What does this fold into?
Amino acid sequence: MKTKYLKINPADNVAVAITTLQKGEKFDIDGHEITLNEDIPAGHKFALQDFAKGENVIKYGYPIGHTRQAQKQGDWINEHNLQTNLAGLLEYTYNPVNAELNIPNRNLTFKGYRRKNGDVGVRNEVWIIPTVGCVNGIATQLANSLRQETGGIGVDAIMAYPHNYGCSQLGEDHENTKKILRDMVLHPNAGAVLVVGLGCENNQPDVFQEFLGEYDQERVKFLVVQKVHDEYEEGMKILRELYAKASQDQREDVPLSELRVGLKCGGSDGFSGITANPLLGMFSDFLVAQGGTTVLTEVPEMFGAETILMNRCHNKQLFEETVKLINDFKEYFLSHGEPVGENPSPGNKAGGISTLEDKALGCTQKCGKSYVEGVLPYGERLKVKGLNLLSAPGNDLVAATALASAGCHMVLFTTGRGTPFGTYVPTMKISTNSALAANKPTWIDFNAGVIVEDEPMEKTCERFIDYIIRVASGEFVNNEKKGYKEIAIFKTGVTL
It folds into this structure.
């Protein structure tokens, strides 16, 4: 290991411990001798100066909060002595920056499935999607039976996606459910879909079918179980026909410009903004430069770093849409009596993330330095290539489901604490530290922890690009190997 600590930005007045540091250790930082006043856990911050009460703490070159009381040089800076600066709605001014990328197009390809409408998938799966939670059991039984009958040969997976919704919902909640289920039915990673409805739910199957718009009627079929005598036999009959079609699909060379990738983090630590998130940022810029698409979400985890994104908007309209994205989510918090600055989980805090700004400034690094080209409401599908911002909360499964539903072929998920979950597209886990990768090899797919050890970021990114292409071409990530695939739909209102 090259160093025991890292000062991320020249303007910072704290440094991050790369390994656990002991009380009394001394470091020469920018010509000043720093003596640690207490033990500093790996990933956590220590003071490079004396702080007065209320003075801003700077990390990544930006304030991450202010001190609750006076602190001495060499003190451990954490959630107990650091207070967020965030409070309520803000007025924003558009100060555009040049975000052009100087990255050559390498004309790379991956092996994907070209669909009838010209779209491309990176998986060829058979999905059973309930319109309402009442038929979850039937959908799951059908998926299990088809897997047993066929062995899954010729397709990448056969999955049912149960959920709690589709009835007893009003207004925006009902629309959210319809949109996410629509997005799933139309997703190109599905070679065939059986939509299973009950018949008396709010999300009426015939209305939902019309809501889909244009779709491949040979690959998307409907079963309304109240209208048939034996729903199991009827369902299996339809599924056998769908499976026969999907199992004949073949991969072909597809330009990397067709790839759409979601950017997500969870269970962060003090290394997230140093290793895995900047790695995703470098990859995001690379993919955008190839003509591809990346999507950043987790709006509450933009609070405190939102102006960085706003000033990278390619025009004033996108800036205004980003302001709305941020303020609408703040108003959602405030309408429920919740402060806009409360976010880091116990795991985040234990890993060295002290405030929401601390989290946000690390989180937003996942989207690199390119222009923002699109802003999407929750449940809407991608319309433009390049970097897009998507409205969704920070909750891991809700946000990952939203990314997939926007049309992302896979979700890149950075973590410093570890998690096994996956949504309905490949959900790749990138560890921020090598200890996690070593401890959880059946969760972690790629280790970015080497970046603070002995491997340059550029070399790590080249390996990462190669791995992404292999996954897009069919190599399974851990959540797929385990069969951990779920969906979660954002709920904001009452349940009848």
